[in-house]
Write a structure and sequence with these properties.
single chain, Endonuclease III, domain 1, two-stranded parallel ribbon, globular
């Protein structure tokens, strides 16, 4: 018997694997949270499947998403990244990854971890929505608005409320699996 899955992933093996194993699973590890933050900021204006297909390239190009290394990237590294056809070659987004890595560490210094900071916006537990059909899920919420606003105030780039809501969905801060999806009660 085939398990019901959220409609957005059905029909693409990569999407389905991501849905089944990662999407909506609560993430508390700072390294993984940073990976999703970077991927979501590069996704701005593009489809998530585009980013998923380039995920390994991003992993290699951005030093396995090591924010301590990314924070030290110089103009030579930026130019190298802009020549890399395996990633999204947007100069503003590449530069924002560096800025965001530097600011990420400032939040870690202030809060002890980025995880503590970000999860506080949902009172340290996932928000479990009751999405009937994936197209009915919100693109942003008052919580993503608040988190986005706070990140922007700190100087983060490409962190609009819609990008941040997608980050929250990906990292399990929000459970937007359809209620009849087999993952709804598993995450």
């Amino acid at each position: 018997m085939t398990k019901h899955k959220c409609g957005w992933c059905v029909g693409d093996d990569l999407y389905e694997a991501y849905h089944d194993k990662e999407w909506g699973v609560p993430v508390y590890n700072d390294e993984t949270l940073f990976e999703f933050l970077i991927l979501e900021t590069f996704q701005a204006g593009l489809s998530w499947i585009t980013i998923l297909r380039k995920r390994e390239n991003f992993f290699d190009a951005f030093n396995q998403f090591d924010y301590k290394k990314i924070a030290k990237y110089d103009d030579t590294k930026v130019e190298e990244l802009l020549q890399n056809a395996g990633i999204i070659r947007n100069k503003l987004k590449v530069r924002s990854a560096i800025t965001n890595a530097q600011l990420y560490m400032k939040i870690q210094d202030q809060y002890g971890s980025f995880s503590k900071y970000v999860w506080a916006f949902v009172n340290n537990k996932p928000v479990k929505n009751k999405v009937q059909y994936y197209k009915d899920a919100p693109a942003n919420t008052t919580i993503s608005d608040a988190l986005s606003k706070d990140l922007k105030k700190r100087g983060f780039k490409f962190v609009g409320s819609t990008v941040i809501y997608a980050f929250m969905q990906a990292t399990g801060m929000v459970n937007d699996h359809e209620i009849d999806c087999f993952r709804y009660n598993e995450v």
